């Protein structure tokens, strides 16, 4: 089923106790798009998702549209949304097939069609052999597969996922993430996915909305968010961002350990760059140098913490065989095009 576009217009939420969970927010999600709401605990992700679902109504003046329809006052059961939560919310004493079939029964689908649809969903989530099992006989990952199958069985026009992988261990999370990715792409369903995990956000989001204190701090593709963070909060929340402060001098920013070249138009007295953009070079070609405070061998890369004379140490990500150790003096170079200057707000 092709997805429908979703628009939130000036959606805000203040709870009865005065908590301002969401400041007035506009958000337009294209048909078939997966938007990830990413941010720290309490930033308003779940509240935004619940407003889309119809589990929460926006404060006066806020509107929610699905396609051409204004659904602001339409209750959840008439919005045709599928939902998957961190905790499974499955019927524990029903079988796997019974859980997936439930929503189809409620919608009055004939038994033969239901059976075919259940088989199709179980195949899609790779859980056909579990059809007759009871929910309490399943692992966490299997339960989440059932929850996904149940959510999409009635062909919802919108799929809402709230931290669906958070309760799973790392390996399972990776497996299921790949399956969710495949599912979202093959169904072309409009989806909103809430997480505080940046790797999940980057892997699944067509676009990511990074949220902070009840506002969208930035919305963009994973590449835009990572390479051109709008402010220091976004820069720090996604990956690691180094920051050096100093004085601008002829196209470079000078600080204690040396300098970094600046891209044209850079006017801020500080510069930010990613650990993986640093190259280790010989002293004559170096932009700056520093002493390695710690070196962590992480298998696929070597992570260095370097004292380059600034207020905060610099983190560098090197190939795993770089052979650098704590105590070494290391010389670095970086391209001007790798320097970002998000606002420090
Ligand atoms: P988490 O990742 O911890 O779930 P979140 O980003 O999803 O966080 P929300 O659940 O949207 O955040 O909550 C945003 C703010 O609103 C928080 O301060 C939260 O305590 C508050 N809040 C949420 N629900 C209610 C409620 N029913 N009544 C009062 N305050 C609430």
Q: Could you explain how this protein is built, in words?
A:
The chain has 345 residues and is α+β, with helices and mostly antiparallel strands. It has helices at residues 45-53, 96-106, 111-124, 140-152, 170-187, 198-204, 222-227, 232-237, and strands at 6-14, 20-29, 34-38, 63-66, 69-70, 81-84, 158-162, 190-195, 207-212, 215-220, 242-245, 247-249, 252-255, 258-261, 270-273, 279-280, 288-297, 302-307, 314-318, 329-333. The strands form 5 sheets. Strands 6-7-8-3-9-10 form a 6-stranded mixed beta sheet, with helices on both faces. A 5-stranded antiparallel beta sheet has the order 16-20-17-18-19, with no helix packed on it. The longest helix is centred in the middle third of the chain and has 18 residues, at 170-187. The radius of gyration is 24 Å and the shape is elongated. The mean pLDDT is 93. The protein binds adenosine-5'-triphosphate. Adenosine-5'-triphosphate (ATP) binds at residues 15, 17, 19, 21, 39, 41-47, 196.
Q: In terms of topology, how is this protein built?
A:
Layout: E1 6-14, E2 20-29, E3 34-38, H1 45-53, E4 63-66, E5 69-70, E6 81-84, H2 96-106, H3 111-124, H4 140-152, E7 158-162, H5 170-187, E8 190-195, H6 198-204, E9 207-212, E10 215-220, H7 222-227, H8 232-237, E11 242-245, E12 247-249, E13 252-255, E14 258-261, E15 270-273, E16 279-280, E17 288-297, E18 302-307, E19 314-318, E20 329-333
Parallel strand pairs: 3-8, 3-9, 6-7, 7-8
Antiparallel strand pairs: 1-2, 1-4, 4-5, 9-10, 11-15, 12-13, 13-14, 16-20, 17-18, 17-20, 18-19
Helix pairs in contact: 2-3, 2-4, 3-4
The structure holds adenosine-5'-triphosphate.
